[in-house]
Specification:
The structure is a single chain. Strand 8 and strand 9 form a beta hairpin. The radius of gyration is 32 Å and the shape is globular. Helix 9 packs across helix 10. The relative contact order is 0.14. The protein has an 8-stranded mixed β-sheet with strand order 1-13-14-12-11-2-3-4, sandwiched between helices. The longest helix has about 60 residues. It has 2 domains: about 60 residues; about 300 residues, Rossmann fold, CATH 3.40.50.150. Helices cover about 45% and strands about 15% of the residues. It contains 12 helices and 14 strands.
Length: about 375
Amino acid sequence: MVEIRRIRKWHLLSDYKASWLFIIILIIICSSLWSISFDDNTNNAAKMIRTTNAEIRHEKQQIIETPTTSFESSSSSNKKNHGKFERSSNVPIEMVWKCFLQKYSNTTTNKNKNVVMEVGMHRIVQCSEAASMGYEAHCFEPSPLSFRKIQQQHQRLQSEETKNNIHLYNVAAGSETGTNIEFYSGGSTGDSVGNMDWWKMEERKTKSNKTVVQVPSVKLDDIIAQQITPDRTIVMAKIDTQGYEPNIMEGLQKTIQSGRIKIILLEYWPKGMDTLLLNTNTNANTATSSSRCKASVHILHMLYDAGYKLYAMNVERHPTAKSFARLRVLRTVTTTKRSLTNFMDNCQFYYHLEETIFPHEEYKMGYWSDVVALAPNEDVSNCV
């Protein structure tokens, strides 16, 4: 019996040792597999870091190697091209609009309301925002289709006071009053003067009576003289019209020279302006160096010579360009390369972005920004 017990005890001990040996072997195997996996993940992570670093180095090198002389005007010494911006700003233009509305809303009274103007609406949002704060809002939209939508939006506004503060105009602000101009009206944000295909940056090959219409043109100087009494303060004018800004500014010369508008927010798209200026089957890509930037530089000088202080906002591009024109690189290039001391060099920079820094066969719309112009005695008030 004693011997049998010893044998059983020995077997139990052997099984116990075997179990522990199995567990130890299993731990060793798992540790090895985990180590291999960890090494693979570490190597993959290292590869990703090296790839990211390589991309960053490439982007930095792309910026560093950008030849400055390719977009600097050969006529930099010519005084007519001089003129400067106060500085650049990263504040979104929508926030600039809201900030100045808020600044002057406290001075608005029912007897003598301050005035804002929006030229190129598409929607009633910003116009009604100003009207709801007590401003008298004069808002312009030449597209018949868009204007009908705006009228419907106006009728749906709940506040009667806001409705009454809004004055809607289905006309095209321009350089003359009493004439009709050709306008492409598809009901989208791409509606504009002419029959332009903005994606291709050229005139459309065909015209449709349903989309290409004649709309009346009026000078903003005339609207101001007839509709806004001299005792009213025009706080702000926002102009965004797909390259037609030079014509609008021509019809606003008297008001600009008087400095009556405190703040002007202006979309600045040199290629779009040049395309409309040429007004032929030749698009802006084939414009000569002498014709490029003529219209856009002219409106900057118009403001600058009247004593307005100019601020250059962020450069923008169409969302389809995000795959090759990364915002981070675009912002860096803009900060380091865009001239703020010469209007012609500043304008040429936008072409340089498209042709040299971010060339792409299918992308022809180019690059643009907004310009904020403050009247001589106007304070920036942290809005820009």
